[in-house]
Each structure stands twice: as structure tokens, then as C-alpha cells.
Amino acid sequence: MQEPPTRMLGSLNATLSATLLLRLPANHTGPGCLHVSIPDGLFLVLGLVSLVENVLVVAAIIKNRNLHLPMYCFICCLALSDLLVSCSIVLETTIILLLEAGTLVTTATIVQQLDNVIDVLICSSMVSSLCFLGAIAVDRYISIFYTLRYHSIVTLSRSQRAIAAIWVASVLSSTLFITYYKHTAVLLCLIAFFLAMLVLMAVLYVHMLARACQHAQGIAQLHKRQHPIPQGFCLKGAATLTILLGIFFQCWGPFFLHLTLVVLCPQHPVCSCVFQNFNLFLVLIICNSIVDPLIYAFRSPEIRTTLREVLLCCSL
User: How far apart are CA 125 and CA 127, in angstroms?
Assistant: First the structure.
């Protein structure tokens, strides 16, 4: 038996050469490198918390027929993507702990195949999560700028086709990523995808904030109160937007910075210091799956009401 697989995406650690692309051995790192050690127990706890949160969101949206709308379908799929991330992390952590304890005995080939399957699942759920974050932003943008035509533009059938396309594209792209991890073009595509989602969300939400401030200004002028309402409203909106985009960048940015450095300077000592904290970057992505329900689901009064009903039914 070989040692249990390290916690990395299979496309980045399936072989020794791939591991070297991620990080240098410890004796090649600089003396000033800061390495944050992440215990397997933390992965397990965070994964379980995310699992519970996202299961509640999916259950609430499925239970309440009033929530069977395109907007909530995207939120449900986002929760499902985060749920898959959590399940994959919990499953991987459990297998690693069982292998380390000697409870689970199997061949290295089976362990590698299982690791690849889990990595495809993790990678596809990450890609789909980013896609649904972008889809939610587009949906909200259309609801604000094309209010009267929203229900004719964003129909349930169109949203279902978009959801199916996202899931298929996520599975195919993650499979290609795992298969062709050695090709720089694959990493560049992932990096470009993240940047595109970041720019898309930033542009749409900033434009929505500008429209909301303009609308508040118009209302204030009608009531002859030009300063207090717009200023407070816009400051609150700007703070909310900063938090939303800040959390997105903080949780996903380090992982894609890691991939960027893998492409630009795989052997540089400074870059190797970053590579040593890969597990920390994965923890941040799990934290994003914990925060997503708080931002996109639990703020909805109808979802909160349905959640109370679900919890009351479970307690009876």
C-alpha cells in the first residue's frame, strides 16, 4: 500500500510530476515561507456544516411550490453544487482517515481511481457553482432592467435549459481538466473562466447599484428630500456589494491565484511558498459553500418561512 492520497484535485496530484507542478518539496522552499497546516478534521466539520445548510435550502425550495420559479431554481442549483462540494469533501476526508487508520485496506490502483472520481465530482461542482453565481447575477440584472419583460425573457423552460447546459458543461469541462491536467491551456481556460465570472458579476452588480441609486434619487426628489435617502441607500448598497464581491474574491481568488502561479512560476521559491498552502485555499472554497446560503437563500423571507416549516416537521 502506498500512503493515502493527499488532499488535492486529482488533475493536480495524480502523478509525482503533477504534484511538482503544485508545490516544491519542503527543502526547496524559502525559510520565510508561511505554511498553514489544515487538519483533516477541519475539512470534515466544514463539509458537514455546508452539507446541512445546503440540504435545508434544497428541501425548502422543493417543498414550497411558490418557490418553483427561475430565480429560486438557480438558487437551488447553487445550493446543490455546494452540496456536492461538501459531500465530496466529507467522502474524501472519511476515506483518507480510514486509510490512515488502517481500517480501509485496498490496492493503490483502486485508491487512485476513487480519488480521480471524487476529484471530477469536486471540480464539476466547483465549476457549476461559479456558473450559477453568474446565472443568479444575470437573472437579477434582467429583473431590474427589464422588469416588464422579465417573465417573458426568463421563463421556466429557458431556465431549465440553461441549468441543464451548465451541468453538462461542468461535467465535461471537469473531466477534460482531470484528463489533461498537464496541458497549460487547460489551466489557462480555468483561470480565464474565473476572471470572466468575476468581471461579469462586478459589472452587473455595479450597474444594478447605480440604477437603484438613480431610482432612489428620483423618489427623493419627488418628496423634496434630495440628500438623506439616496446617500444612506447608496452607502448601504455599496457596502452590500462590497461584501458580496469581497467574499466571492476572497474565497475563490486564492485558488485561482494558485493555478496562475502554477502556469507562471512552478519552480520559483516565492511561488512555492504559495503552493504549500493549497489546502488552505480549498478550505476557503468550502467556506464559500457555507456563506452562499446566507447570502442568496436565507435572506428570502419565504425561504425562511418554509425552512421553519421543514424544521418543525422534522422535529415532530
Answer: 5
Distance in angstroms (rounded) separating the CA atoms of residues 247 and 261: 22
Judge whether 36 and 61 are in contact, CB under 8 Å: no
Q: What is the pLDDT of residue 8?
A: 36
The x, y and z cell numbers of residue 164, run together, are 441543464
- pLDDT for residue 78: 94
**3-state SS assignment for residue 105:** coil
pLDDT at residue 32, as a whole number: 65
What count of other Cβ atoms lies within 10 Å of the Cβ of residue 230? 20
State the DSSP string of 233-286.
Answer: HHHHHHHHHHHHHHHHHHHHHHHHHHHHHHHH-TT-HHHHHHHTTHHHHHHHHH
Q: Do 281 and 209 meet the contact criterion of CB atoms below 8 Å apart? A: no
- Give the chain's residues under pLDDT 50: 1-29
Q: d(Cα 120, Cα 6) in Å, to the nearest integer?
A: 15
Cα 119 to Cα 115, 273, 276, 278, distances in angstroms:
6, 24, 19, 15
- Do 209 and 252 form a contact (C-beta atoms < 8 A)? no
pLDDT of residue 101: 77
What would the CATH number be for the domain defined by 39-310? 1.20.1070.10
By CB atoms closer than 10 A (0-12, 13-18, 19+), residue 303 is buried
* pTM for the whole structure: 0.82
Cell numbers that stand for 158 in this block: 429557458
Q: Which residues contact 134 (CB under 8 A, 6 or more apart)?
A: 197, 200, 201
DSSP 295: I
**Are 190 and 256 within 8 A, CB to CB?**
yes
Let me know: does 182 contact 119? Beta carbons within 8 Å. no
Spatial neighbors of 19 by CB under 8 A, at least 6 apart, are 6, 8, 12, 13
Domain ranges for the chain: 39-310
